[in-house]
Amino acid sequence: MEWGQMTLEQWGDLQTQLYETVGENNYRNWIEPLEFRGIEDSGIAVFHAPTNFFGSYVSQNFGDLLLAQMSRRDPDVRRLAFRVGQGDSSAERRPSAAAEAQPQMQQDARSEPRSESRRSSDILPSAPLDARFTFDGFVVGKPNELAHAAARRVAEGGQVTFNPLFLYGGVGLGKTHLMHAIAWELRARMPELNVLYLSAEQFMYRFVQALREKRMMDFKELFRSVDVLMVDDVQFIAGKDSTQEEFFHTFNALVDQNKQIVISADRAPDEIKDLENRIRSRLQSGLVVDLHPTDYELRLGILQSKVDSYRNLYPGLHIEDGVLEFLAHRISTNVRVLEGALTRLFAFASLVGKPITMDLVQDSLADVLRASERKISIEEIQRKVAEHYNIRLSDMIGPKRVRVFARPRQVAMYLCKQLTRRSLPEIGRRFGGRDHTTVMHGVKRIEELRHQDGQIDEDIELLRRALEA
Ligand SMILES: Nc1ncnc2c1ncn2[C@@H]1O[C@H](COP(=O)(O)OP(=O)(O)OP(=O)(O)O)[C@@H](O)[C@H]1O
């Protein structure tokens, strides 16, 4: 290291001044234990701090003052660095080239500790990131465009504008994918940032482990020294009092330091039961965005993008027109199921050496298609049919046998047979305790009428479509 102009002696003078400015207690606790190492030629004043937490605290609370006083004496001083560990600062302890190349980061890091040990992955391992979960692999549509835009903004790593970013949505809608994409992007753009991604469950596990091993100071220090904290599935900590407490303190400490936090959950903060109110309100204090259930266009887009990525794996595999549209229409539950179906189709087709046709879809995905069928209930059918024929529900189910009630009743029975998996006796029971032979007769009668009476046929088609919508 080349030393700047400031000498140890001058540091001694400065300490006396700091003593007067910060007061005896602060001075003894926070300034005196610092060891001045010198000034690197890049204008970084380097201090040795006893621990990362210590460095972080000094940086946060006295960094501006220290920097102002130092740069008054030596205009070359532009930043402070608090490092832990043994030995002299050496070349490998300098901020990385990437950090130097990032003007924004330099400004952020002005008074921050950026030691190698702080970045060391064995001290603060992030949960592994899935290589497929990048922004490139994320298909944007109406239901997720806001969440995607917010995630992009955070991934730029600029000034923290909303804190935390809270992403929520139902199962398999892309929360984890977006979180990983943010982490990948930040790592690529700013490798010097300490980005920690983990699930709320892992947070709890580490907390409990720290308690058990009596290493709470280390735990606090580690979590307070990250630059970006990302916690997935935060609903997990609901009802777990001490984990919530610790999460709350970690959260506050990082927000106070203007460090970005990204949280995901399966529901909105005010819908998470057994969450302390103070945490709930913290989680709501930034930007809360939800991933809406996918629509047909988004599902089709996702399928098309997955097919593109499969092209290398299965070259020459042909997909019949209409297959993707059919899947996007039929599998509307979640993207994970949709992806799984496509993977299975490709594997199946390549095994049997055939193109992906509608027949192959029916053969290889029968269970998935069955499971994703919308379940239509007997009550729903009865209600819709009663509405359609403008009669009361009680008359449809009741004993009256006049045609104005009997015909709609038979139509409803017929639809129950067609659209549900209920047995004839079960259907009979739900129509005022009628016998299964009555149901059978009704279903037969409607089958006949569909051939003879265009109006009935049309009514049934209309009702079926409304019920399946
Ligand atoms: N818009 C999208 N574009 C591409 N892939 C997507 C999209 N949304 C979801 N996926 C994929 O769907 C799968 C499930 O997504 P992810 O794991 O992110 O869901 P999640 O919302 O975190 O669900 P969970 O609540 O179950 O954890 C992943 O393989 C992901 O890549």
TrEMBL record:
<dbReference type="GO" id="GO:0006270">
    <property type="term" value="P:DNA replication initiation"/>
</dbReference>
<comment type="subunit">
    <text>Oligomerizes as a right-handed, spiral filament on DNA at oriC.</text>
</comment>
<dbReference type="InterPro" id="IPR020591">
    <property type="entry name" value="Chromosome_initiator_DnaA-like"/>
</dbReference>
<dbReference type="InterPro" id="IPR024633">
    <property type="entry name" value="DnaA_N_dom"/>
</dbReference>
<dbReference type="InterPro" id="IPR001957">
    <property type="entry name" value="Chromosome_initiator_DnaA"/>
</dbReference>
<dbReference type="InterPro" id="IPR013317">
    <property type="entry name" value="DnaA_dom"/>
</dbReference>
<dbReference type="Pfam" id="PF11638">
    <property type="entry name" value="DnaA_N"/>
</dbReference>
<protein>
    <recommendedName>
        <fullName>Chromosomal replication initiator protein DnaA</fullName>
    </recommendedName>
</protein>
<feature type="binding site">
    <location>
        <position position="172"/>
    </location>
    <ligand>
        <name>ATP</name>
    </ligand>
</feature>
<dbReference type="GO" id="GO:0003688">
    <property type="term" value="F:DNA replication origin binding"/>
</dbReference>
<dbReference type="GO" id="GO:0005737">
    <property type="term" value="C:cytoplasm"/>
</dbReference>
<dbReference type="InterPro" id="IPR013159">
    <property type="entry name" value="DnaA_C"/>
</dbReference>
<dbReference type="GO" id="GO:0008289">
    <property type="term" value="F:lipid binding"/>
</dbReference>
<feature type="domain" description="AAA+ ATPase">
    <location>
        <begin position="161"/>
        <end position="291"/>
    </location>
</feature>
<dbReference type="InterPro" id="IPR038454">
    <property type="entry name" value="DnaA_N_sf"/>
</dbReference>
<feature type="binding site">
    <location>
        <position position="176"/>
    </location>
    <ligand>
        <name>ATP</name>
    </ligand>
</feature>
<keyword id="KW-0238">DNA-binding</keyword>
<feature type="region of interest" description="Domain I, interacts with DnaA modulators">
    <location>
        <begin position="1"/>
        <end position="99"/>
    </location>
</feature>
<dbReference type="InterPro" id="IPR018312">
    <property type="entry name" value="Chromosome_initiator_DnaA_CS"/>
</dbReference>
<dbReference type="InterPro" id="IPR003593">
    <property type="entry name" value="AAA+_ATPase"/>
</dbReference>
<comment type="function">
    <text>Plays an essential role in the initiation and regulation of chromosomal replication. ATP-DnaA binds to the origin of replication (oriC) to initiate formation of the DNA replication initiation complex once per cell cycle. Binds the DnaA box (a 9 base pair repeat at the origin) and separates the double-stranded (ds)DNA. Forms a right-handed helical filament on oriC DNA; dsDNA binds to the exterior of the filament while single-stranded (ss)DNA is stabiized in the filament's interior.</text>
</comment>
<comment type="similarity">
    <text>Belongs to the DnaA family.</text>
</comment>
<feature type="region of interest" description="Disordered">
    <location>
        <begin position="83"/>
        <end position="123"/>
    </location>
</feature>
<dbReference type="GO" id="GO:0006275">
    <property type="term" value="P:regulation of DNA replication"/>
</dbReference>
<dbReference type="InterPro" id="IPR010921">
    <property type="entry name" value="Trp_repressor/repl_initiator"/>
</dbReference>
<keyword id="KW-0963">Cytoplasm</keyword>
<dbReference type="GO" id="GO:0005524">
    <property type="term" value="F:ATP binding"/>
</dbReference>
<dbReference type="InterPro" id="IPR027417">
    <property type="entry name" value="P-loop_NTPase"/>
</dbReference>
<keyword id="KW-0547">Nucleotide-binding</keyword>
<keyword id="KW-0235">DNA replication</keyword>
<keyword id="KW-0067">ATP-binding</keyword>
<feature type="binding site">
    <location>
        <position position="175"/>
    </location>
    <ligand>
        <name>ATP</name>
    </ligand>
</feature>
<dbReference type="Pfam" id="PF00308">
    <property type="entry name" value="Bac_DnaA"/>
</dbReference>
<feature type="compositionally biased region" description="Basic and acidic residues">
    <location>
        <begin position="109"/>
        <end position="121"/>
    </location>
</feature>
<feature type="binding site">
    <location>
        <position position="174"/>
    </location>
    <ligand>
        <name>ATP</name>
    </ligand>
</feature>
<dbReference type="Pfam" id="PF08299">
    <property type="entry name" value="Bac_DnaA_C"/>
</dbReference>
<dbReference type="GO" id="GO:0005886">
    <property type="term" value="C:plasma membrane"/>
</dbReference>
<keyword id="KW-0446">Lipid-binding</keyword>
<feature type="region of interest" description="Domain IV, binds dsDNA">
    <location>
        <begin position="350"/>
        <end position="469"/>
    </location>
</feature>
<feature type="domain" description="Chromosomal replication initiator DnaA C-terminal">
    <location>
        <begin position="377"/>
        <end position="446"/>
    </location>
</feature>
